[in-house]
Structure of Fluoride-specific ion channel FluC:
Amino acid sequence: MFRTVLLVGIGGFLGSVSRFLIGQGLHRYFDTIFPIGTMTVNIVGSFIIGVIYSMAERGNLVSPEMRMFLAVGFCGGFTTFSSFAFDNLNLLKDSGFLYLSVYVAGSVFLGLLAVYFGTQIHKLF
């Protein structure tokens, strides 16, 4: 159990640091009020978790420990729906309904699409 907790913690650390660096990089590159970093991370994280669970279901492609490290740890630290909710509130307050609508619809729809494609990627190999 301690080993699993440690793996989840290390994965969470790496996911959180990755989220921070990607968010900062995209914010600097695009210089916009739109939360492109959080949206990008949520979509990429959705794809990654789809791939992980798809590979885990196929048998021994991903060990249970690796699945915990990647899905619970890394993806749990990487994807940020609490930031998503906070960004939504700020968009509603600062920019109105249009940016809020694009952000919510884009994140949810593209996230679902990314999970679907992630679960189908194994069919290419």
